[in-house]
Design goal:
There is one protein chain. By secondary structure, the protein is α/β, with parallel strands linked by helices. It has helices at residues 75-84, 103-116, 132-135, 164-173, 185-196, 207-210, 213-230, 265-269, 275-278, 291-302, 318-321, 338-347, 353-368, and strands at residues 5-14, 17-26, 29-34, 44-47, 52-55, 57-62, 87-92, 120-123, 125-126, 148-152, 178-182, 234-236, 259-264, 308-310, 384-388, 393-394, 413-414, 417-423, 426-430, 433-434. The strands form 4 sheets. Strands 1, 2, 3, 4, 5, 15, 18, 19 and 20 form a 9-stranded mixed β-sheet that branches. A 6-stranded parallel β-sheet has the order 9-10-11-12-13-14.
Length: 447
């Protein structure tokens, strides 16, 4: 039987409001919310006075590297980092070794997570130019799988899908959400060839020139055109350009949208001006681009053209990042710090804490139709995060939990601290103390 907890006098941030209340947790779920609660049964009481209680963040795009790339990361190490950072559920991508091209390989990942993940989990089905029939078997599992992932830009291991017959087949027949990485490979190759004519040895600052706005826009436009043709449920990942924003609307409530979008924390935080200091450590796909793009992303996030915030957590070893630019691996480890990063912008007045909760929890649950999570509601799973906005957190090598051991946010001082993280009512992390006796659960979907 799970331990019962009573969080007293915390500011509950939920569904656009922040109200001082008590929250009673029992049997893995939120039993009651209200003022001055008491319990007739034994409970562990937590003083939440002066702190804010948020629903756990749900990260809809991570790369935890298992199986096959465990020198970079494992589901255990990265899920633990996520929990320390207030991320209580994740959805993981199929570009592992082997790539997730069969239903059996997909279920293998669920089995690994069931034995090792401290956070709740789901996994995307992977696509290639030749496995569309296998992909469409997810239609029979739509309550148990977050979606299908299509790389419409360069990737490894045969994951690039550039065959329009395959794209049309999957878009027309899929009954689950399709998530796309949109960068046009032809534009990228042309940009690189043009650059190499006058600069034989490119450097990190050239990354947004090679993978430019047009590469993103052309691919996103193509995905949307195909989705509109078939009324497909499409979710475009990591929007990074001002130009793409014209493709998205805020005219409908999120639950009625057929085409939705994601923005990642690094595109809200860094710009091309940071390559001089960070170099390959902020090399990622799609690229971090010129400052006007970041400003446009913030505007679109606040007016709801951008629907959810994620990390695209993609760890690589230091050795892999320290290679010359053309060989350095693309991707940033971020899943331990997205909540703290966004709370920094709350303290700076750029976004409200209620909007952060909406974009990192409520909207993700709505977008993917996740059952009983993403909100602080009676009867919902108690995936909860207690934060102290009067404390600070400094990112150092000593407190980074990623297996790769580094972060592009090292030495950042965030004006907040995560003090407690509950996953399914279990206090996994509290004031620096870990209780790993209970693991996360598989996410389920109301489809």
């Amino acid at each position: 039987m799970s331990q019962r907890y009573l969080i007293k006098n915390c500011t509950v941030v939920n569904e656009g409001r922040s109200i001082v209340q008590d929250v009673l947790i029992s049997n893995g779920r939120i039993e009651k919310i209200g003022p001055s609660l008491s319990s007739s049964s034994a409970v562990i009481e937590i003083n939440g006075e002066g702190k804010h209680l948020l629903p756990g963040a749900i990260d809809d795009q991570v790369h935890f590297r298992e199986p096959g790339l465990t020198h970079k990361a494992t589901i255990y190490t990265e899920a633990k980092a996520a929990v320390a950072g207030g991320v209580t559920s994740f959805m993981e991508m199929p570009n592992t070794i082997p790539p997730v091209f069969t239903q059996e390989l997909l279920e293998d990942k669920y089995q690994i997570a069931s034995k090792s993940s401290l956070a709740n989990y789901s996994f995307f089905m992977g696509t290639s130019n030749t496995n569309s029939e296998e992909v469409l078997k997810t239609n029979g599992k739509k309550k148990d799988i977050c979606g299908v992932k299509i790389f419409m830009g360069s990737s490894t291991g045969g994951l690039l899908v550039d065959n329009y017959n395959t794209l049309n087949h999957i878009f027309s027949e899929s009954e689950v959400l399709i998530a796309t990485h949109c960068e046009d490979e032809r534009v990228i190759k042309a940009n690189l060839e043009k650059l190499l004519q006058h600069k034989p040895v490119p450097e990190p600052s050239d990354h947004p020139i090679i993978r430019d706005e047009n590469a993103c826009y052309e691919s996103s436009l193509t995905a949307i055109q195909i989705a509109k043709k078939y009324n497909t449920r499409l979710h475009i990942l990591h929007i990074s350009t001002e130009k793409e924003l014209q493709l998205f609307s805020n005219m409908l409530p999120l639950e009625d949208k057929r085409i939705t979008s994601e923005v990642c924390v690094h595109h809200l935080h860094f710009t091309s001006n940071n390559y001089a200091e960070k170099g390959n450590f902020i090399k990622c796909n799609p690229a971090i681009k010129a400052p006007h793009n970041r400003e446009a992303l913030w505007t679109a996030l606040l007016d709801d053209r951008l629907d959810v915030i994620a990390t695209d957590h993609a760890p690589h070893t230091l050795a892999e990042k320290e290679e010359p630019y053309m060989k350095a691996h693309a991707g940033l480890p971020l899943v331990q710090h997205p909540v703290l990063l966004m709370l920094r912008y709350v303290k700076e007045g750029r976004i409200s804490i209620e909007k952060v909760v909406s974009k990192m929890s409520h909207a993700v649950a709505t977008c993917f139709q996740i059952a009983d999570r993403g909100f602080i509601r009676e009867g919902y799973f108690a995936d909860l995060v207690l934060v102290d906005l009067n404390a600070t957190t400094t990112v150092t090598k000593e407190n980074i939990l990623y297996k790769c051991g580094w972060s592009p946010l090292e030495n950042e001082v965030f004006p907040a601290a995560i003090t407690h993280t509950f996953v399914n009512g279990h206090l996994v992390y509290g004031n620096g103390v870990w209780d790993e006796s209970q693991l996360g659960e598989r996410l389920h979907f109301n489809r």
